[in-house]
Amino acid sequence: MLIEILIVDDNADIRNILNDMIIDAGYKTRLAANYNQALSEIDKKMPDVAILDVKLDKGDNDGIKLLTHIKSKNKDVPVIIISGHANVEMAVSSLKHGAFEFIEKPFDQARLLNFIKRAVENLSLKKQNKDYESKLFSSYELIGESKNILNIKDQINKISLTESRVLINGPSGSGKELIARKIHKNSKRKNKPFVIINGALLDSDKYELELFGEEKINGSISYGALEKSNKGTLLIDQVSEIPLNIQSKILRVLTDQKFKRLNGNNDINVDVRLICSSSKDLKNEIEIGNFREDLYHRLNVFEINIKPLNERLADIPLLIKYFSKKISDNYNIKELDIDENDSYILNHNWHGNVRELRNLIERIAILQPENKEKVSNIVKESLKSDNINERITETSLSVPLKEAREKFEKEYLTIQLKKFNGNISKTASFVGMERSALHRKLKGLGIKEFN
User: How far apart are CA 166 and CA 192, in angstroms?
Assistant: First the structure.
């Protein structure tokens, strides 16, 4: 999209010089010669950037009044103030009212163009952050009634009220990023940026650039994740993959709350809440020399642990309902009819966790099966390579009947207990046993009951 810049100056020569210079630099322009014209142009359509002369036809502070008017309509629009009657008081006043920069006449064209370039970069950064936020808060909810998920929801409510750094542990696809998003959404930083970088996806020579940004030879700035997330939250996903030399620099930022961009000389102060996540055991990574222990203790102020999906079977029916509704709406099709107690689904190992379950439901939505039987066939075809029933059958062929029956009962009742979140009454009702009989059976099979 072509950036549009509003030029407001009562001197025709200056207007024309600015107009030609800015068009040559690749921008689109609109012009206004006095206060009323400028007001009309602003109210007609907000420019991306504005260049305002302070003194027009209405008084000495026309530019400041226009600046205030623009900021009241859209505080993100960068405004550059120019003046031929400049003094320190005027410069300070314009900056207090939200001006991006202040420059005196006669101005140096290269300096003004550099101001414009930085203003456009600033605007782009703010739009990027808004895009992040809109994507962020149209995402999925944290669904589940297992003790693990209920505990995490409670932790989110408590930790969101603080500024503490958080470390989220859990296997791939289990919902670590979603937890981080919920913490940000419930915090006092919720209206500020939420930025994510993935330590496992960056090239080894790009870590510093992605984190700290760069000051280029031509004067332009490439902003890093720390600067993009200033006043907001930065999630470093797969933090275990960050190289040791970069870990030491992150530790320094946490200590000093400032850093230098690549090729930069000036300190950049930042106020960022840091959340990290890992699929690896960071304590083990410390033992083998892959992770700094001092950084671990800095990051692990508050720890959240999310279990794999096959350890929280009670959540699977709820997730199936939720994803079926969400994905059916996205594809604008009739809501999917998926058996939430399908043994193939409940017995599956779910190495990809919630993400793998969601992908299965999306696959069903794409294929649009006509009936429940065809849905079941897709589920079996998708999950057949890793099903507990098949493993039980294979093992059972090589043992006596009594032992095979015990193995099956142990697997079966363990799964049912997990499915009903350890609730003996619900499990007994589903399997068709009295509570007391189920207690005896569990004790006899060596199955530990859990609350």
Answer: 18
Residue type, 226: L
Q: Which helix (H) or strand (E) is 214 found in, with range?
A: strand 214-215
Q: What is the pLDDT of residue 61?
A: 66
Q: Report d(CA 430, CA 414) in Å as an integer.
A: 13
**Would you call 384 helix, strand, or coil by DSSP?**
helix
User: In DSSP terms, which residues pair with 303 in a beta bridge?
Assistant: 167
What domains can you pick out in the chain, each with its CATH number?
4-124 (3.40.50.2300), 137-307 (3.40.50.300), 310-386 (1.10.8.60), 389-445 (1.10.10.60)
Find out whether the peptide bond into 400 is cis, omega within 30 degrees of 0. Answer: no
Average pLDDT (363-377) is 81
Distance separating alpha carbons of residues 131 and 118, to the nearest angstrom: 20
Q: Is the pTM of this model over 0.85?
A: no
CB 14 within 8 A of CB 22: no
What one-character-per-residue DSSP string does 173-209 give?
TSSHHHHHHHHHHTSTTTTS-EEEEETTTS-TTTHHH
Question: For residue 394, what pLDDT band results from cuts at 50, 70 and 90?
Answer: very low
List % helix, strand, coil for the chain (3-state, nearest 5).
50, 15, 35
3-state DSSP call for residue 137?
coil
Q: Can you point out the beta strands (E) in 226-272? A: 233-237, 258-259, 268-269
Provide the pLDDT for residue 441. 77
DSSP assignment string, 60-78: TTHHHHHHHHHHHH-TTS-
For residue 236, the model assigns a pLDDT of 95
Contact 149, 315 (CB under 8 A): yes
Residue 88 phi/psi, 5° resolution?
-60, -40
